[in-house]
Sequence to fold (400 residues):
Amino acid sequence: MSDSPFRRIVEASAPDFWRLWYVGLIVSTVRWLETIVVGVVVYQRTDSAFLVSMMTMLRLLPMSLFGVFLGALAERFDRGRTLLIVVLLMSVTSAVLAVLDRIGQLEVWHLAFASFINGCGWCTDNPVRRVMMGEVVGREQMGTAMSLDVGATNASRMLGPAFGGFLLVETGIQGAFVLSVLMYCTALWAIMTVRSRIPRSADSGAVLARISEGLALVRSDKRLIGVLVVTVIYNIFAWPFTSMIPVIGRDRLHLGPEGVGLLATMDGVGAFAGALLLALWLIPKWYGWSYLGGVVCYLIAVVVFALAQSPVLAGTALLVTGLGGAGFATMQATLVYLAAPAEMRSRLLGVLTVCIGTGPIGFLWLGWLADRIGAHSATAVTGVLGLLALAATSRWWKEI
Fold:
């Protein structure tokens, strides 16, 4: 413990690492706060599990549409300024929604459009903020740095849903968006104090040529292929179940908004604990096992959550999804970052972002199925399909 990866990075890391870490914490907290609030409000107004799923899907859609292009473009611009513009855009979006609710004009389509805009900001995280973090801490500390970053993300999954549920009851959706704006302001301040700068790429090649070069490297590296295949499976069959938490919480477990918010925090509790354990003890030779094992545990826990009939069992299952998700989330960007040449990291993390962006397929499927056989049955079926897909693709991911 005296020479743990966690202690080494705490002692060696520059203040800029913690500033970037804080930005990730704030942006992720707002994302989860708004996801729960929007999910509950949309379900109250429409009584459609499909539309609830679509709200989350719209946050993911920009990843599949723009992720690979943003990864290539990020190499040609100042990443600090890019990050500042992205967070400012998301704060303005939340402010507009708060005003619309204040004047009584907020509609479901406004929430859908805002979800898409914020998704555009989200898909810059890997090729911009996380590349900046990697350059600040160095290659040797990237795994631990990502553990801490994922720990922040997972802490936000405890804070965001809880804040969202209680604010929805006490102040309505307007209060949730006002809090979002205030939190974004602190993130903007943190970005403006970052001093580290990554030089722009000296290569002025066209974006499409850069993308082609990155894809050629992926095809030639079995480790990268394996990581990307598992990422696609997770984002189609595993993660979309989070959109059903408000529906299952209300209809199957008979919880109110506060109860749904607290239930959703259990996933974050497990994920935070998992990320902390990884930061303390994970070593490079276990990176692959952490990644794959996390996905298996996650999918099994999704099935248990879907079939649970008591809040206690459902919360316990969500705790396990959090633990498994921590291993997956920590390692996916780390494995790609370590496998990529320094000059191509943004591009390859852009490709990873596209794989994450396959999530809309899962959200569409799950929302469609939930409207036909019920949210809990659809979630269970999707979890089982994910396990089968993982087994069927072993020849690709066994190289990780």
Summary: The chain has 18 helices and no strands. The CA atoms of residues 90 and 395 lie 40 Å apart.
